User: Fold these one by one.
Assistant:
Number 1:
Amino acid sequence: MSAPTSISDTSFRPPPTSDAVAKHNAVVLAAAMALGGSSPAIVVSLGGLVGQALAENKELATLPVSLLNLGLALGTIPAAMLMRRAGRRIGYIVGAGIGLAGGCLAAFGIASYSFVLFCLGTLVIGSYGSFNQSYRFAATDAASDAFKPKAISWVMTGGLIAGVIGPQTVIWTRDAVPAAPFAGAFLGQAALALLSMMIVFLLRPAPVSIASTEAGGGRPLLEIVRQPRFVVAAVTGLVSYSLMTFMMTAAPLAMIGCGHSVGAAALGIQWHILAMFGPSFFTGRLISRFGKGRVTAAGLVLIALSAIIGLSGITIAHFWITLILLGVGWNFGFIGATALVTDCYRPQERAKVQAANDFLIFGSVALASFSSGKLLSAGGWETVNWLVFPPVAIALFLLAWQQRTKAGAPA
C-alpha cells in the first residue's frame, strides 16, 4: 500500500509524432500494477493477524507489516540501479520473481509456525513493492509531454483495481490450506506476482534514450535538505504517510478485537485502498486550483477527522468511515507534499533529493507500523487515534508558517 518513488532512472523520449509505445506500455504497467500492487493489501490485511498468532510477544504482532515497509525502503535504490543497468523489463521481471519468492516464503512460515520466516517473507514482499512503485514513472518513459499525465492515470487505474484484487484474494484463499490458516492468501499473492512477471515481459523499450545527467552535480545534499521549504515538505509527507500506516496497520487487529470478522476487516482495507488511489484523478487539478499547501493541509485535516470518527464508535461503519477518510487524507497530504518537494531541487539534483525524501518517509513508515502494534496492545484503538493529533498539529503549523514567511531561497 504504498506511494511512488522516482530515484535515478534513465529517462526516454519517443518520436514526437507517435505515442504508440507509450500507450502499449501504460496498458501493460496498469495490468502489472493491478496484480503486483495487491501485495501490500494482502500483507496489511493479514500481517497483524498472523503475527498475533505466531509471535510469542504479542507486541510484535504488527512487525510483519513494519517489515513490508522496511523492505520497500531498502529495495528502492537497488531496484533503481538494476533498472538503470538492465532496463525496465528485466528489472520488473526480477522484481516479480522477488514477489513470488516472498509470498512462498511467507506461506511456508505460516505452515511451519515460524514467526521469523513469516517476517522474512513480508520483508521480501516489501522489496518487491520497491519495483512496483516506479510503474507510474516507467509509463512516461516513451510518452510525449501531452500524453504523460494520461499514462500516469492509466497506471493509477491499476492501483484502484489492486485495491479490489488484494482484499478479495484474502477472502477467497485464506482457507485454501486448512492446516495453515491464511497461508493460502500468501500463495495467492505469489501467484499474482507470477502473473505480473508474465505481464511485464510484454513491455517494449522506449524508442530513444537520453543519458541521465543526474548522476552528479548540483549542491551538496545537506545544503538542500536544510532548506526550510524541504523541511516543511518532508515533514508533511512523513506525517501523512506515517499516520496513514500507523492507523491502517492497527485497524484490522482492532476490528477483530471488537468482534468483527476477518472478512469485514479485509473489506475495510479494500475501501481504504480505493480511497487512497481514487482521488488521484483529480488531486492534480485541485493542486493547480488551490495550491500545493492548501491541498496538503486539507489532507492532514482529513486524517485528523478520520481519528475523530475512530474515537466516536467501534461499529463496522465507524471503522470503514475512518479508513476511507484516512485514505483520502493520505492522497491529498502525500501527493501535495510530494509536489512541495519538487520545488526544492534543480533538475540535476532530483535523484539524490528524492532518494533522501523516500528514505525519510519509508523509514518513518516502518517505525509507525511497528509502534502501532505495541500501542494497540498497550492502550487499545482509542490510544492509536488520540496519537494522530499531535503530528497533524505540528505539520499544519509548519505549513501555515511557510505560507506566512515564504521561507527558503529558490532552488
Note: The domain at 1-212 is CATH 1.20.1250.20 (Growth Hormone; Chain: A;).
Number 2:
Amino acid sequence: MKTNILTAAAVSFLTMTAVAQKDQVKNAEDALEDGNYAEAKAQLKIAEPNLGELNSKWTENFYLYKGKAYMADGTSASGEDLKTAAEAFQKAAEMGSDEANEALASLKNNLIQSAIADQNSQDYAAAADKLYTSYELSKQDTIYLYYAANNMVQAKEYDKAVEYLETLNELDYDGSGKAYTAVNIETGERENLGSQQQMDLMVKTNQYKEPQVEEIPSKKGEIAQLIARIYISQEQYDKAVSAMDKAKATNPDDIGLLQAEANMYYQMGEKDKAREILEEVAAKDPSDPATFNNIGLMYAEINDEEKAIEFYKKALEKDPEFNEARVNMIAAKLSAEKAIIEEMNSLGMSKKDNARYDELDAQRKELYKEVLPDLEKAMEVDPDNMSIIQTAMNLYSNLGNQEKVEELKAKM
C-alpha cells in the first residue's frame, strides 16, 4: 500500500511539473507578444531544466519562443544571443516548425548584416563570430567560413584564422564561380543577384540595368597564402611550407597557388626560389603582365637591370597600358645614371678630367633622351601622376628644353 501511495505521489508531482512548465512557456509567449524579451528569457530559463517533461509540441514551442526571445527585435541582440537564437530555431525547425524555419532564414540574414556592420566599424572578431555561426547553421555555405577566416586575420586572431583556413583546405573549398550582377537603378550600385534567372528577371522589371556575368576566380591560392603568411609571421617556416605543399598536392597546376608559393618564399627571404617559381608561372600562363613585372622587380633587387628591363618589356607586350611595368622600366634604365654621376663628381680640374666629364655628360644626356619616350607614354597613360611629371621635368631641364619644362609645370 505504501508503494502505491508513493507512486501516486510521484505521478502527481510529475504532472504538476509539466503543468508548471507549460505555464512558463505560455508566459514566455505572452511576454514576446508584449515585446518583453527579458521576461520571456527568464520564463524559459525556469522551464528549461525539466524540458523532458513536456510533450513534443510544447517542446517545439519552447525552442521557437527561445529563438524569438534571444533574437529580440533582430537588430539589438548581441552576437552570442543571435547564436543562441539560431540554435533554438534550428531545433524547432527540426521538430517540424515552419515558423521557426522562416525565422531562421531571417536570423541568418540578420547575422550577415550585423557582421557587415561589425566589419565596417572594424570590429573584426565580432564579425568573424557571426559569420562562423552562419556557417555552422548551414554547412554548405562555406563562403561564410571563408569570410570568418579573413575577419579573424584582420582581428589578428591568427590561431583561430588558421583553424578556419585549414578547415577550408580540408573541405577542398575553391570559391570560384560566376557572379550575376546588375546595376540597381534606384541606388546606382551594382548588386549580385545570385543567378542568371534572377538577374534576367530583375532586369525585365526595369529596376535593374546593365546585366553582367563576372568570373569569380579560385580562392585556393589566397587561402594557402594566408596560412603561409600567418605561419611566417610566427616564424614557423616549416608549417608554412607544409601548408603550401599540402594545398599544391591536390592542385599542382593552380596558378594562384604557384603565385602564393612564390610570395611565401619571397617573404621568407628565399628570393631566388621565389623568382624561379614566378618564371614557372609565366611559362604556364604567359597572359598576365603582373607576373612578368614581378619577375623584373626581383631581378632589379639583385641589380641585374638588363634582365629586369627584359621582363618589364614582356609585361608591356602583354598590356601596353600596364604603367606600373613602364615606370619600373624607366627606373631600371635611369639606374645607370648613378654610376655616371658618381664618376663625374669624382673628377678633378685637369684637361683630361674635363674631357672625361664632357664625355660622361654626353652619356647622361643620351640616357635621358632614351628614357623620355617612355616617360611621355607613362604620362599619357596616367596624366595625373605627379611623380612621373616631375621626373620628366628634371630630364627636360637637364637637356635644356625649358619650353617642355614650362609646359609640364603648367600641368602640375
Note: The first helix runs from residue 2 to 33.
Number 3:
Amino acid sequence: MSEGQPLFVGGQWVAPDGGHYPVTDPATEETVGWAPEASPEQARAACAAAREAFGAWSRTRPEERAAVLGRAAEIIRERLVPYADLARAETGATTGTARAMQVGVAAARFRRYASVEPAEWAIAPQINEAGPMGRAVVTGALAVRQPVGVVTCVTSYNNPWANPAGKIAPALAMGNTVVVKPAPQDPLSVYRMARALEAAGVPPGVVNVVSGRDVSVGEAVVASGDVDMVSFTGSTAVGRRIAEVCGRDMKRQLMELGGKGAALVFDDADLASAVAGIGTTFSFYSGQICTAPTRVLAQRGVYERLVEQLAGYAGRLKVGDPREPDTVVGPVISAEHRARVESYVELGRKEGAVVVAGGERPPRDRGFFVAPTLLADGTNDMRVAREEIFGPVVTVIPFEDEDEGVALANDSDYGLIDYVWSGDVARAFRVARRLRAGGVGINTVGRNMEAPFGGFKKSGVGRDVGSYALHAYSEVQAIVWPG
C-alpha cells in the first residue's frame, strides 16, 4: 500500500496509478487525508472485476446476501463515532448530522436490505382459445425479479455515507455487483464503507471503489461494456451527459438529480412549523441538499410575517466550527462552491430581490462559510428562483390564491420534492396532488424512508428507497407455462 488511501478493486487494495490528492476539511482548510487518483484503466478493471464476480453473487441465496448486509450494518454502528468524525471532516457537516444523518442512516439502510423480500409473484391464469398458436389451454405465469448485472454507483458529495449505502445495499440485496465512484471532495468515507463490507464477508469483486478528480474516471465506469446500469446522484447537467452515454448501449438508469423545492405557505399555516421546516435549508448540510425548500411561495396574507420570522430565524443560527456542539450551520464544501453561492446572492440583488438576512461572508479566518441568506420580494422568473444554488439561500415569492400558488410552484424545470403548509388538511392534500413533483411534504420536511423517492421533469428518472429500490435494481422476468 502507498502512503495514502488505496483503491478497492476485485477484493484487493490497490495503489492508484495517478497517485494521491488531498481531501480538504471545509471548516479548517486543513488536509484530512490523501485520496487515490485512479486511472481510466483501473476504473475499467474494477468494472471487469464486478462482471467476473456477478455470476456467483447473483446465484448466492438471498438469505446469505442479506446476512452480509446485516453484518455490515453492525460494523458501521460499532464504528459510528470514528466514521462520523471522518465524515464531518470531509464534508463540514455538524457532529449531530454526521452521526445521525450520515453514518446512522447508512447503517439503517444496510439493515433495511438485510431482510429478504419475495422476488416473485404469481400472475392470474389466462384462458387461451384454440388458434394458430395451438389448442385451447390455460396458461399460468410468474413474474420474477432478476438482478440487472453490474451497477455503477456515482455518488454525491453532500452525504458520503447515506447516499452510497442507499445504492449499494439494495443493489447487493438483489444480486448485483457494484462499482462505486465517489465524489472527489469526500471519498475517504466510502472507502471506510468498503472496508466494513469486506469485513462483513462480501466476496472479492462484488464491491469495488475507484475515485479521482479527473472526469475520465467517471466516464470510464459509466461507459464500460461490463456495466449494465448506472445509478447517479448529482447535478442535472452531469446526469444528462451520463444518460446520453447510457442511451447508446441501452443501459438502465436511476437518476436522482437537482431540485428547486417549492414551499407553499398559505394564510392559515402554522408559521412556526413553516419557519422551522424552511429553515432546514440554512442548517441541513448548509443547504447543500436537493430536497431543500429553497423557493418559498407565501400567500399575501402571511407574506410579511413569514419573511420577518424567517429573517429572525436565520439571524439566530450559529455559523461556525461543526465540531462545536452549538454550531448549527457549517461550511459549504469548497472555496469554489462558496464563490458560486455568493455569486447567486449578488445576482439576486441585481435582479431586484431584497436581502433581508445574511448576504455577507461570516467573519471567520478559515473555512468556506456562507451566512444563511434570505432574499425577499422575489419573482419566479429570477435566476435565484429558477436555478439550483445548493447553499443556505432561500428566495421568498408572494402569491394571491391557490391557483396562482400551484402555477408558480409548477413553473420550474425541477420537480423533486415540494412542500405545503396549511391548516386546512383537505386543501393541503388537494394542492399536493396538483404539484408536479416526485414527493410532497405536508406541514413537514420529514421523510418516510419506505416512500418512493425520485423526481419529475429534470429532477431525475426512476424511484428508489424501500421496496422501490429493489425494483430499481432489478429486471422483471415473466415465466409462462401451460396449466
Note: The chain has a mean pLDDT of 96.
Number 4:
Amino acid sequence: MTMERRPQRLFIGGEWVEPDGGHYEVVDPATEESVGLAPEASRAQAFEAARAARTAFDAWSRTEPEERARILRAAAGVIAANAGPYADLARAESGATAATARALHIGVAAARFRRYAKGALEPVEQPLPPQLTPAGPLGRAGVVGSLAVRRPVGVVACVTSYNNPWANAAGKVAPALAMGNTVVVKPAPQDPLSVYRMAEALAEAGVPPGVVNVVSGSSPAVGEAVVGSPDVDMVSFTGSTAVGRRIAEVCGRDLKRPLMELGGKGAALVFDDADLGAATLGIGTTFSFASGQICTAPTRVLAQRGVYEELIARLAAHASRLKVGHPADPDTVVGPLISAAHRDRVESFIALGREEGARLVTGGVRPDSPRGFHVAPALFADCDGGMRIVREEIFGPVVAVLPFDTEDEAVALANGTDYGLIDYIFSADVPRAFRLASRLRTGGVAVNTVARNLEAPFGGFKHSGLGRDCGSFALHAYSELQSLTWPG
C-alpha cells in the first residue's frame, strides 16, 4: 500500500487539529515500509479532547435513542461502503491477512455499529416489585414503587489494542454512544490510522461535534493523559495485564469505572474421546489468526495421554502446511507480527522454551523473506505446568502441549496460570464438558469449538480483566444504575 498522502490530524471537538508533537511513521509489518504519518498529541491536546467530550455529553445524553440509532446505522453504512480501502489500510497497518482485514476487521466493525444501533433502542428501565411500608418515623404506611434505570456513565476513554484496530474500537465506541456517553479514543500506536477513518465515518454519519474524539501518540504519555483527565468518568481498555494494572491504579485513585479486557493464556483440554480433526483445526487458529496475537487463542493444549502423541503429530502437520508470507497474497495464512520488537519478544520465548526443556516439534524460525516481522508457527511438546512458556502470555503463533491423565489433573493444569479469559474443551462426552466448565476459573468456556457468540458476555477472571462486554452486556457496562422511587 502506498503511503497516505497527507499527514493525519487529530480529531477533537468535531475539528481536525494539527498535533502539537508533530508526526511519527506507521510501519507496515510485512514490508517495513511507511504506511503513513500519525499525529503525536500533546498532554494538553489529550485533556482538550476530554473537555470536548465533557462539553458534548449533556446534549448527547439527552438525544432521543432513535437519533442515536440512526447515526450508528449510518456509520455502519459508511464503513461498509468503504470496505475495500479501509481493509487495505487495516492490512497494511496491522499485518492482518487480506481476508481477515476485510471480514474480521471491517466486517465486524460495521456489524457492531449495526448491533448497537438496535442497542440504543433497548429498554433501560427495569420495574421492581412494590414494597409495603409500615407506618413509622419516615411516614405513613403505604406502597412504594421503584424502577431501576440505566443512565450513561459520562465521558468514556476508549484505549484500544493493535491486533484489530477496527473491531476493537467499534466494540467500545458503538455501545458507549448507544447508551448516551461521549468518548475519547486513544488508539494503539502501531495502527492508529484506521481509527481516524472510523472517526471520519462517524462524522459523515452525523455524530455531533465532541461526541467522538481521537488522539494518538507513539509514547505512553498521551494515553496516560487521557486516562488521568478529570473529565473522564470511565476507562475501557484492551491490552496487556501490565498496562491494565497501571490504568486500574488511576481508576481506583479517582474512582473512575474500569472495563478491562487483558491478557489470556487459553487452555484447550483435549480428551481421549475428542474429535481430533476438530481440535486440530481449532487449536491451529493460534498459528493463523492474527499470527497468534489474540488473547483468546488456545495457546496451551492439555492432551489426555491416549491422544497426546497423535494430537502433536496432527498439530505439527497442520502448522507445516500454513503459508507464512505477505498478507496481501491470497495464499498467505500466517502474516507478520506487529513489530520488530514484538518479533524479538516472541523469539525470546521460543528460545526460553528450549532452555526449559520443552521439545520444539516444528517452526519457531524466521522465513527466508528479507523483509517483514515473521515467525513460523512454533509447536512445543513435553511441557510441564511450571514452564514460563506455559504460564506466561507470549502473544504469538506458539503452542505448548502438556499431557494429563485424569479430569482433576486437567482442571488443575488449566487453572494453573494467572489468566482466565477463555478455555476450550474437546470431548465427545458433552455432559462431562459442561460439568468441567464449572470448575474452570475463566470468563468463557467453549465446547468442541473455538467460535464465539458475540451476544455472550465477554471478559476474564483473575488477571484477564474486569467487567464484561458484548451484546447487551456492553450496554450495561457503559451505564450506571439509578433507582427511581415513588409512593404508590
Note: The mean pLDDT is 96.
